[in-house]
Amino acid sequence: SAVISQKPSRDICQRGTSLTIQCQVDSQVTMMFWYRQQPGQSLTLIATANQGSEATYESGFVIDKFPISRPNLTFSTLTVSNMSPEDSSIYLCSVDTGNSGNTIYFGEGSWLTVV
Amino acid sequence: KQEVTQIPAALSVPEGENLVLNCSFTDSAIYNLQWFRQDPGKGLTSLLLIQSSQREQTSGRLNASLDKSSGRSTLYIAASQPGDSATYLCAVWNRDDKIIFGKGTRLHILP
Description:
- The complex is a heterodimer of chains A (about 120) and B (about 110).
- Chain A has strands spanning about 5, 10-15, 20-25, 30-35, 45-50, 55, 70, 75-80, 90-95, 105, 110-115.
- With about 120 residues, chain A is mainly β.
- In chain A, the strands form two sheets. In chain A, strands 2, 4, 5, 6, 9, 10 and 11 form a seven-stranded mixed sheet that branches.
- Chain A is globular and about 40 Å long.
- Chain B is built from no helices and eleven strands.
- Chain B has strands at about 5, 10-15, 20-25, 30-40, 45-50, 55-60, 60-65, 70-75, 85-95, 100, 105-110.
- In chain B, strand 4 and strand 5 form a beta hairpin.
- Chain B is globular and about 40 Å long.
- At the A-B interface, strand 9 and strand 10 of A face strand 4, strand 5 and strand 9 of B.
């Protein structure tokens, strides 16, 4: 298994500002992912955080809005830039340890409210 | 394009009952299927992972089945308890390494 810590757990942000979410894993993992879960919706993949190279973004998500860093195999950050109320969501970090048949694990999430 | 559907969207049952949550997917070419639990405002907790070669997995009071040919999975919860109240999410892992989630079933166990 993997223990994933996300910070902050919650925040209220002003429109137009940016916030960086941190994800720390207790073991080295190859694959790290960032998801968004808007109110009442399921999870949507934002991007795959690649160690040592640029993240791979899904359709509808761009680097300028959601810059991602992955400096090593245990840590990643997601920045939500120039926030608007539509960005109010839970943002979740997840990892694939490659063990246990590719079970994926999630952090507790970061609940952002943009006012 | 893979689509994952969970039925029902919400379910309330008295404590002690056995229940079944359903998940269907449109493309049967999957690697894995995983069931998660999500408590309000929280992240996801993995419950059971079924690999494509498997038909079911069990953990305690939970049993998940997979029928790839029909594109269906079920999560069976035996002897339900109030602590089982949560949203249950089904996710399929496509062969293009994309993980697609259903919208979940909100389960409420009545004491």
